[in-house]
Structures are given as C-alpha cells and as structure tokens.
Design a protein that fits this description.
CATH superfamily of the largest domain: Tetrapyrrole methylase, C-terminal domain
Number of strands: 14
Shape: globular
Catalytic activity: 2-[(3S)-amino-3-carboxypropyl]-L-histidyl-[translation elongation factor 2] + 3 S-adenosyl-L-methionine = diphthine-[translation elongation factor 2] + 3 S-adenosyl-L-homocysteine + 3 H(+)
Strand order of the largest sheet: 3-2-4-1-5
Structural class: alpha/beta
GO molecular function, one term: diphthine synthase activity
Largest sheet: 5 strands, parallel
Family: Belongs to the diphthine synthase family.
CATH topology of the largest domain: Methyltransferase, Cobalt-precorrin-4 Transmethylase, Domain 2
Bound molecules: S-adenosylmethionine
Keywords: Methyltransferase, S-adenosyl-L-methionine, Transferase
Strand content: 15-25%
Distance between the termini: 51 Å
Pathway: Protein modification; peptidyl-diphthamide biosynthesis
C-alpha cells in the first residue's frame, strides 16, 4: 500500500491526526520537498515528531526511477510525504498512476493546500480562478537569457475571461522566487510581447502561508515588484475583474489601493 500523506503548509505540526497515524503505522516513510517545502521544518524535526525515520527522495528518485522504493509498497506499508495537499501537483498523480500500473494499492490523506489558503488569506473567491501556472527562473542558452512566455499567456487568457490567475513561483535548491520577482518577470514577458495589458493590473503576493508571520500584500503589479514580503515560500495572484466583496477584502486584508473599490463589480 502506498499512501500519499499531505503535510500541510508550513511545519511538522500541520499534518492531520489521520496523516500522523498513517505515518506512525507505516513500514517505510519517504518524502519529497522539491515540488513544495515546509519552510518551518527540517527532516530531523519531522522524524522527531512523527517518531519515524524519513528518507527524503531526490527529483530523479521520484520522477525518473522510483521503481526501487515504490516496489516496496507491493508488500509493505509505504507513506510518501509531501507539502500541501498531495494531488495539487501533476508529479504526484503521475506517481500514483505508475504505482497502480505496478499493481500497488494507493490512498491519499489530504491536507491544507496553498491553493485554498490563497483564497482564505486574500478573500479572492475560489470559483473565480482560471487556469493556474508556474513562473520559472530565466535561464541562459546559447549566451541568451531566456524567459518562458507561457505564464504571461495564461494570465492574459484568464484576464480576457475576467478570471484570477494563481502563479506558483520557482523553487530551486539555493533560491526561492519572491512575489516581487514573479511580478517583474510577468512585466518583462509582456514587454517582450509588445503588449501593455498589465498596466492596470493588480498583483497579490502571499508569503509563508500557514506560519505565524504570514503576509498578504496587494498593489499594482508594477509596484509589487519593489514590495518586500520577507522570506519564502511566496506565491503570486493576478486578479481578474473583482467582485465588490473581493475588492473590499483586498483593501482590508492586503492593503490594496482603495481606488479598486470603484472598479469592482457590484
Ligand atoms: C507546485 S506548488 C505545490 C502545492 C502543494 N502541493 C499544495 O497543495 O500546497 C508549490 C508552490 O506553491 C507556493 N507555496 C507553497 N506553499 C506555500 C506557502 N506556505 N506560502 C506561500 N506559497 C506557498 C510556492 O509558490 C511554491 O513554489
């Protein structure tokens, strides 16, 4: 049996009671922290609270060659721990399907996710979000700096349908993208596309959801570039047309410019 256990948003205490029981009842406990990270926890702190050794897997061990550790789930109870809610990540669905093809039974223990925390913290309503996307750091190829354009296309498409866009921000071993960096990259993409669609767009940054010092900041996208939200993890939202209650929430909860109240729909 392979059980995906969501660990929630910030530290080792965010796991559910059911998740904790599942971990303690497992023969083997694995984790991955490259799709998301619990910034308030270390593998040692997890092991201490859970009372079990936690083997942290690399991206390659999860995506390229998981057969070895996955195969153990044919005979033994294996827990696979991940940040947030397990299936808010295509990697984990892929792993689940792979396990099923190997004849392994699977289960999920759900947990809180950044996807729902963002609605909770900002007041932006879940049903008004369109497709979400990720912003990767630019990379250099052939001496040229390459900025992926697809996040901009997703935002433009959602804006055309009056929908909000949730933008996951790149996590790398030695750096974490901030909401300000994400906003700057979106503006750079729009400039590259010779457009000006984001001139009157808002940006909402959320930092360290689930922690004692979680922060939510709303400002014009071009101004968000210079706003310091502190440490990781962070996420960015570009809202579409706002319902009046959403606008009121952004002003009250995230310090958005009050003039957005006049632009909101009743
Ligand atoms: C690909 S998502 C993984 C989602 C996770 N499975 C979940 O359900 O929460 C990871 C991205 O979400 C954002 N994120 C995750 N946890 C966060 C937190 N506690 N505060 C702010 N952003 C967070 C970051 O942008 C990070 O790169």
């Amino acid at each position: 049996m392979l059980t995906f256990v969501g660990l929630g948003l910030y530290d080792e205490r965010d796991v559910s009671v059911k998740g904790l029981q599942t971990i303690r009842d497992s023969d083997l406990v694995y984790a991955e922290f490259y799709t998301s990270r619990l910034m308030g926890a270390t593998p040692e702190k997890l092991a201490q609270l859970y009372g079990r050794e936690v083997k942290v897997l690399t991206r390659e061990e999860v995506e390229v060659s998981p057969e070895g550790w996955l195969g153990r789930a044919k005979e033994e109870k294996v827990a696979f721990l991940v940040g947030g809610d397990p299936m808010i990540s295509t990697t984990h669905l892929d792993l689940r399907l792979r396990a099923l093809r190997m004849g392994i039974e699977t289960r999920i223990v759900h947990s809180s996710s950044i996807v729902t925390a963002v609605s909770g913290m900002t007041g932006l309503q879940n049903y008004r979000f369109g497709r979400s996307t990720s912003i990767p750091y630019p990379y250099v190829a052939g001496g040229r700096r390459i900025v992926a354009m697809s996040p901009r296309d997703v935002v433009v498409d959602n804006l055309a349908r009056d929908l909000h866009t949730l933008l996951f921000l790149d996590i790398q071993p030695e750096r974490y993208m901030t909401a300000g960096e994400g906003a700057a990259l979106l503006l750079e993409m729009e400039e590259e596309a010779c457009g000006d669609r984001f001139n009157s767009s808002l940006g909402v940054g959320v930092a360290r959801a689930g922690s004692e010092d979680a922060v939510v900041v709303a400002d014009w996208l071009r101004k968000l570039v210079d706003r310091d939200l502190g440490g990781p993890l962070q996420i960015l939202v570009v809202p579409g047309r706002l319902h009046f209650m959403e606008a009121e929430a952004l002003v009250a909860l995230a310090g958005a410019p009050p003039e957005i109240l006049e632009m909101a729909e009743p």
